[in-house]
């Protein structure tokens, strides 16, 4: 089972690229928490904090495809350096705007957050797009699994670091450090891309200029993006469900503990899946994800009341084992489907689809929690993953003929 990992370690630059790609996304997982504390303290409103946090995410989602296309056509390294520096400066400005402006000026803060989001360095789409240029076979499947597993780890580590800085110092410093991490991660990743010979434009196989065909015309691309949309929305709904249940029982610390258990389960599943040989079966992995989410419904109130944190933890640990493998298979499949010269753009659209999933999950989970309870919100997540299963069945396994730009 360790053979694919040995193959990864043997390829020059791959360990370094993985390390810097992971560090380059760490800031994204802790920023929303720090921003919520900052804005809530400034305005006294969590609703406004949510609006400003959403503005940052919308900026990221809107610019994702454009930055991906620019990376494909003009080169990724220079773009990542430029956006990384701008993003770090922008986050520093956002951290101190509340000290310079009265709280009634919060719409300006929302506009500024949207603008800063436009400059989020495209480390994630570029990081996912480069692997087929370096690896193949079981090693390629393994690197996508490692990437998904490390992403889950960042979602456990990032908020904890941000919360520690908020508690020990203040939200301003937490946001400044988040911006600094984004800049450092972007510079390091860009340097590794250059050393690996991947910092320039993606070479096109053909030089003829036929009638332009859209990326969305490639069979399976739209279904892959929609699959990510539903999976991300479902996972965030589960996360919101656990937070709400922990608050309802007056033990908010359980939200962090159970979230960590969920991430550990995902990490274990990812490590096991990454060591398997053969082509991953996307539909099977999404079905396992569905089973894991569905198992939460009967262990949460009002179906099971009072709920047992131990039972919930066991379900999250086992069900979480399907998260990273499913995400890895979905990411790898999109990389197979997208033409090489449009691959980063495709992953930019994937980031936008994930952001849209967040936008769907927040109000939907809130409505179900208010009108039914945690088990109802978990059932809503089940419906979303079930739709993902249907989409996974429609995504072709074979890579189509490349579409030229």
TrEMBL record:
One GO molecular function term of this record is: transmembrane transporter activity
- Spell out the protein name for this chain: Predicted arabinose efflux permease, MFS family
Gene Ontology CC entries for this record: plasma membrane
Q: Which Pfam families match?
A: MFS_1
Q: Which InterPro entries match?
A: MFS (IPR011701), MFS_dom (IPR020846), MFS_trans_sf (IPR036259)
Where is the protein found, in the record's own terms?
Answer: Cell membrane
Ranges where the Major facilitator superfamily (MFS) profile domain occurs: 220-405
Membrane topology, from the record: Multi-pass membrane protein
Give TM regions. Answer: 33-63, 75-97, 109-131, 143-169, 175-199, 220-245, 251-274, 286-304, 310-334, 346-369, 375-395
Q: Which organism is it from?
A: Kibdelosporangium aridum
Q: Which UniProt keywords apply?
A: Membrane, Transmembrane, Transmembrane helix
């Amino acid at each position: 089972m360790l053979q694919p990992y040995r193959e990864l370690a043997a390829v020059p630059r791959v360990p370094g690229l993985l390390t810097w790609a992971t560090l380059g996304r760490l800031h994204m997982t802790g920023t929303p928490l720090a921003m919520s504390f900052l804005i809530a303290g400034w305005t006294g409103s969590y609703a406004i904090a949510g609006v400003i946090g959403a503005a940052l995410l919308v900026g990221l989602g809107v610019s994702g495809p454009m930055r991906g296309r620019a990376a494909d056509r003009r080169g990724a390294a220079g773009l990542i350096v430029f956006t990384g520096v701008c993003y770090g400066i922008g986050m520093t400005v956002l951290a101190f705007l509340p000290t310079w402006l009265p709280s009634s000026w919060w719409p300006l803060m929302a506009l500024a957050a949207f603008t800063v989001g436009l400059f989020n360095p495209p480390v994630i789409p570029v990081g996912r797009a480069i692997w087929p240029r370096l690896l193949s076979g079981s090693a390629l499947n393994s690197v996508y699994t490692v990437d998904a597993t490390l992403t889950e780890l960042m979602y456990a580590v990032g908020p904890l670091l941000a919360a520690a800085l908020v508690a020990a110092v203040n939200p301003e410093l937490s946001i400044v450090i988040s911006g600094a991490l984004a800049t450092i991660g972007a510079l390091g990743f860009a340097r590794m891309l250059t050393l690996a010979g991947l910092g320039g434009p993606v070479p096109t196989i053909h030089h003829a200029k036929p009638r332009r065909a859209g990326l969305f015309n490639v069979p399976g691309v739209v279904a892959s993006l929609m699959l990510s949309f539903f999976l991300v929305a479902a996972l965030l709904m589960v996360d919101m469900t656990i937070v709400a249940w922990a608050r309802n029982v007056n033990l908010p610390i359980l939200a962090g503990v159970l979230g960590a258990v969920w991430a550990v389960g995902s990490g274990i599943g990812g490590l096991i899946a990454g060591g398997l040989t053969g082509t991953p079966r996307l539909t099977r992995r999404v079905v396992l994800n569905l089973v894991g989410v569905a198992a939460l419904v009967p262990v949460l109130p009002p179906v099971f009341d009072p709920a047992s944190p131990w039972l919930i933890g066991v379900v999250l640990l086992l069900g979480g084992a399907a998260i990273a493998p499913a995400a890895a298979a979905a990411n790898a499949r999109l990389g197979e489907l997208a033409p090489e010269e449009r691959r980063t753009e495709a992953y930019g659209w994937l980031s936008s689809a994930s952001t849209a999933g967040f936008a769907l999950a927040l109000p939907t989970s809130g409505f179900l929690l208010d009108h039914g309870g945690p088990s109802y919100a978990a059932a809503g997540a089940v419906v979303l993953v079930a739709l993902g299963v249907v989409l996974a069945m429609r995504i072709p396994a074979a890579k189509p003929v490349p579409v030229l730009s």
